[in-house]
Structures are given as structure tokens and as C-alpha cells.
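Mods, move this if it's the wrong board.
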Amino acid sequence: MRITNIGSCCIDHVYSVPHFVMPGETLTSTSYAIHPGGKGLNQSLALAKAGAEVHHAGMIGQDGIWLKERLEKFGVNTQCLEVVNAPTGHASIQINPEGENAIVITGGANRQIEARDIQGWLAHIEPDNYVLIQNEISNLDAVFEASAAAKQRLIFNTAPMGSNVMDLPLEQVELFILNEIEAHAITGENDPKHILAAMIELYPAASTILTLGAAGAIFKNRQEELHQSAIEAEVIDTTGAGDTFTGFFLAHYASKRPIAECLSMAAKAASICVARPGAATSIPDLSEVMKL
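Not the wrong board. C-alpha cells:
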């Protein structure tokens, strides 16, 4: 089963800091590194490492060609990853001693994607495959339209949440992958039980994964509800953990594995990710996850 990820590619500038910078404060970092990143790139890498057939569609600048090469190194098809005359998206990431992060994103080439590009990327795909999206590229409405025209199955990780999400035809989504902040923005609810009930009421044909950090994750649709505990790990950096979870879950979901197995593999992969620095660089191989 093919998964086409129409997603962002970013260059991550990562700063280890004693605390998140305050308004008016100048703060000296204890370390600095550059990593490949962007939710789209991270999820494509996680999908590929989990064994999925993944095609990454999107845009980078000349400064991001090394990101394309990294995707290709791990088996991602980049035929639809275009190099354009714009800077590659980038992120400034602060990591505190507890492994939490604060992130500022600049869209760059990720925001240059037009409807005609999306239509071209999806025009010749066989029906009943998957399209994965996040909320870091331009013209998401065109992804919904082109996915419907190509009869693709849409998976939506709404991060980072924005007001544009609620203007999209969300009834087309087969699977939502949400954290508590994103889920609250969609449903207005705070309690996980109420969030999931509201998602069923709003989008009865969809399934939802609600990720809860240290409390694990819940999968729910009209037929079933499954809980997955978080796997205990030493937390060094949580950046990319959600993307790792998404990629490993979807790789197994697309292979029609039982949902409980999909959740377990995703949780194990995320637990390895948080014990390492970086986002894309911290995503484990399938063999590492299998050992858990």
C-alpha cells in the first residue's frame, strides 16, 4: 500500500538552553546543532524506517538538497520533492533540561506549494492508497480536493494547529492523529473521554488517535476503543516523538495489522526517539523497535 506524504521539509536549528527564553532576555545556549526536520520529513522517515512504501511530495530550496538526499538514503521516493527558488523551511528549537521543546517555524519553500502542484503529484496514483498531511504547507484545501478526485484515503495530523483547519472538509478524513491541544481546538473539549466522544459525533466515519504524552494514546472509532500505555524511557528530547509515533502507526495500519499492534509499535518507537537528541536523527530503525 502506497503512502504519499505531502509534507514539509525543514532545517532544524537546535539550541540546548537552561530554560526557555523569556521576553526581553538574551540567553546563551549550552549547545547548538543543525538537524533535518519538518513534520513531513520526520514522518516520511519514520514511515520508511517502519517498512512502508512512502513517497514524499513537497518543496525545498537549494539549501535543502541534503534533506532530499537523506530521505533517499532511507528509501523514501522523492520524485515529487521539488527544488524551487526559495529558501528551505527552517525551525529554531529550544530544548530545556527536561527534554521539552519550544519551536518557531519559518515556512519558506513549504509555503510555495500551489494547487496545480498537488494535482500533479496525485494525478496518476491508483485509487485506495493513502495520503498523509500535516499543517505546515500551503493550500491544504487543494490536497483535500485532489485526494477526493484521486480516490485516496486521507490521514490528517493537524499539527501545528491553526484556524485554517476548521475551514477544511474534515469529513473526508479517514484517520485523525491529534494531541490534546489540537483535539481541544477541534472539539472544544478538554477531557479525553469527552474529546473522543465529540470526534465521533462530528466525524462519525473517521477514526481518531489521541496522543496523551506520558499517559499514552487512545484509538477510537464507532466500533472500538483501544488504550496504549506510554513505554517508560529516559527523556532527553521530545522533538519528533509524535512524528515517530505517527509514522510507525501508519506504516502498520496501511499493512492492515491489528490496531493494538499498530499502537504498540508506535509507542515503542516513540520511547526510543525521546531518549535521543534531535528529531529526524532520533527516529529508530524497525529492528530496534522489534527488540522491545
